[in-house]
Amino acid sequence: MAYSEVVILIPSHSLEDFPTELGDAPAAGLLNCFACSCHPSLLAATGNFPGWHRSDEPPEQFEGRLYFVAETGDSQLPHGWKQRARDAGAVVVDGSDNRQQMLREALAPLLPEGDDESPLPEDTDLAARLSIDPELAADFLALGTCWILLELLTRHMHHFTSYDEVFFEKTAVAAARALLEGTVDQCTQHLQSCFDLMTEARERFYPVDCYLLDLCLLTPDQADEKLAAMLDDPAPANLLLKGTDADAIAEASPELIEKMSAAWQAETLDIAGADYEELAVPLVPLESALRDTEKGRAAFKRLFGKEPTTWARRRYGLSPMQPQLVDKGGFHSALHFLLDDGIYPDREESRMKWEGCDSSLVDSYSRIPLAADSGATWLRFPQRLAETMESDQVAALILARWPEVTSPFYHDLKRLQKYSPVLGRFVTFSEFFTQTDDHGGYGYGYAGGDSKNYLSPFFIQAVARRETDPIGRFAQHTQRIARYETVEWQSHIASVLMGQPVNRDPANVVLDTLEQAGPDAFEDGSEKASEAIARAEASLSEFAAAAEKRVHRIIMHGAGDQSGWLCVNPLSFPRRVVVDLPEGASPPDVAGPVKAVQCDDRRRQALVEIPAAGFAWVPSGGSGKSAQKADVVLAQDTRLRNEFFEVEVSDATGGLQRLKLHGRSPNRLSQQLAYRFPREQVIRREVDGEVEETKTWYSTMRCRSVEVTSSGPSVGEIVTAGEIVDPNTDASICGFRQTFRVWRGLPYLEVEIELEPQRLPDGDPWNTFYASRFAWNDSSAAISRSILGAAQPMQMERIETSDFIEIASSNEERTTILPLGLPFHRKTGPRMIDSILICEGESTRRFRFIIAVDQHYPTQAARDVLSPVVAVPTETGPPRNGETGWFYSLDTRCIQASHLAGLLREPSLLDTPEVAALPPDTNGFSMRLQETEGRYQHVNVELFRTPSSGRIRDFRGQTISDAIPDGDGLRLDLSPFSIVDLEVRFD
Length: 987
What we know:
Blueprint: E1 5-10, H1 24-36, H2 40-46, E2 51-54, E3 65-69, H3 71-74, H4 81-87, E4 91-94, H5 99-107, H6 126-130, H7 134-156, H8 165-181, H9 184-205, E5 211-217, H10 225-232, E6 237-241, H11 243-252, H12 254-265, E7 269-273, H13 286-304, E8 310-311, H14 322-328, E9 333-335, E10 352-355, E11 361-365, E12 370-371, H15 375-391, E13 396-401, H16 408-416, E14 425-426, H17 429-435, E15 442-445, H18 458-464, H19 472-497, H20 505-516, H21 526-555, E16 564-569, E17 575-580, E18 594-599, E19 604-610, E20 614-619, E21 635-636, E22 639-641, E23 646-649, E24 656-660, E25 669-687, E26 690-698, E27 700-710, E28 715-725, E29 732-743, E30 748-757, E31 769-775, E32 782-787, E33 790-793, E34 798-800, E35 805-808, E36 814-818, E37 824-827, E38 832-838, E39 846-853, H22 858-866, E40 872-874, E41 884-886, E42 888-890, E43 895-901, H23 913-916, E44 924-931, E45 937-943, E46 949-953, E47 959-966, E48 969-974, E49 979-985
Helix pairs in contact: 1-5, 1-7, 1-15, 2-8, 7-9, 7-15, 7-16, 8-9, 10-12, 11-12, 11-13, 19-20, 19-21, 20-21
């Protein structure tokens, strides 16, 4: 049978209203109609390029015609039309989205024995039966795909087809006939002319390059022969890979790592990533996030000899702080999208600046990738390409996929590259970001007010997966890291004081063990998480014992013969801390660094004042001065007080009724425990013979007892007990015990909570939970929270912060809630916040908050209450240089110092002989500085010995600026929210 015409019946009136929103199968079937219709055998048989016609008014000419009917247009055909067409001698290909099946049906009549073999078997080799080159035949199918996509793109760009259609048709037919005649070179030349003609047509409305970024998502279980085949393809491609997966692939298939490395070196492959585990940023501490990136880059360097230059994650990890971490981590670009749940600014740009809260700018791509294996993707492809052409400075689309792609349209697009980039040129991320220009303006981030639009999905995901401790895992990890940072500081300051290089390797081993017991450990089950936590605690205890010995040996060298306790402060500001005294030891006198002592049946504690980044030695055994005279009772009835504020505890609810300054000052803060129901409750009460209805989401709180457990001399403490009650039934759903505590000399109110729930939350953790509810009286107060240590305005209803929530009524009146690692909070109305304690799956029942009054640097307050100080017994004392001492200090409180480390050489100079010859143990150290309040700061860092020089460097060792020696310290400037490493060198 010979065909005289090939017609595609489309489910629209014209290409102007061509459908773009179809499911995968209908979309694939519709596009395959155009691809299959351009098979060279069909073009040669008809002598014409295929045409299209609307399916609701199909032609009535049948004999010798081939009709392609997509599934989506089948229902629009007149009743009985297909049967009439077939009876009259037409071939109708319908009801399939499989390209090969459609070709078998269409080409069967053209085969030499085709009249006797219809339908053909699935394993029929059509190219062999037709005696044509299969690769060139596939190029013709790509021509059909390209033609329809270009036609649709032209219309989405509000243009019209402007190339010579007659010449295009004749050239395509000539190419097909040349192929059937066996003149391959002539066929290729004609095909090249067709693609060049379409490129010229596209360049009439978009005359510059557009880019396609092929992004392969790689996991260890997909590192197989499909990946090897992808790596053999010279077409540019990109991998999204994290360090731990790279290590797993290297262990299982080292030959694949070698192929990936060779392709990366040849610049046909680019790897985007950098993080090793992709931790739950921003819910983990800053040092955990930085260590994960550092470890990831080291893994890539070890395996591939190169490090990624484009930062990317599959898992959520965006925040207003991230551009700075990306920039100072050595990346030149970033992908501002995630293949995960969560909320982040969704403005789509192909090339834009991502601005951080410190004004760091990172070139980034933010358009949501298209799924390369989805038929619906390719139907929407012209529309998405038109969007980036019209809106972006540089037109680009990312096609995301696994190593194996089954979609024929993806392969069609790859085939176009050897002829002409009609619909875009495939490039790597490195080429895209280094060889294209942006318009220089800010796209999204801090300046645009988008910092409020970040919310991670980890809370909901953990509950949805029925994992244990979706809240407690983060609080426990934050507290362990705070302990680790204290121990790390002690170990490293001992090296600095002894003039030795700071060796981070032992500390990094411990930190890696802690990270293995971090929040993600619970994804493997509570039993494995418990084992990991036990290993982490053992490792941390061993590290702490060794660090305490080292710092003890340095400070107590040459000390006297009196026993006592050594307290070390790793933080860069003076502190008053409560330390536990050993059982049976005589309490110290209230003198020198000891500001208060409380020894009774419940506790043996002292309040010790320690200099910034220094120590205080407390002698054991008092002379009677420890018996302080309580001139003011700290706790009486339901009231607590110290020299800073007063507290009233409610005897009706057992919660905090009011916290205020002395005198007639207004209430600052109130607190209650509550259960939030999954649905709003309607409460009916009969009042004076009438039934009144009220609505509420929350339970009520009923106090059973109030007990003063300490009235002084240094500690005031009140304990309340009661139950949380269902207001509808008046039944108890949870027992509680709350302890309110104040210390003389501390501007903090401690709140300890114990819950015994009989009813457990179930479902969405943001909507049903037990919480500590805080309320304040000023609806106009400015509310801020911490993101990785930086104070940021709080504008969303759902809040994530482990450090603090600050309520500022004025510059002088500030009340700060310090949740001690509890990360999830919800704002309800203009004057209330729920700190979530228990949700579905949570096993923690004891919680602790600290309320700070008029502390103007909340990050400092958060670090103060979270960083532990241990009183280490000493058999000698006092230290040779006095009971107190310090090693360095900062003259501004909005800059925090942490993380002592060694010296680094300039990365750009690592290969020079001069630098390579330098001794590795140059005397000095580095400390990490973070500006926390969003201010430009001039800071002096005073040191225990005179420095010879200093510099400010990024996390990779690159110099940002010099630090100027000034007397016994260094002088430098920091921009708002910046994080830098200050390197100090001694002669």
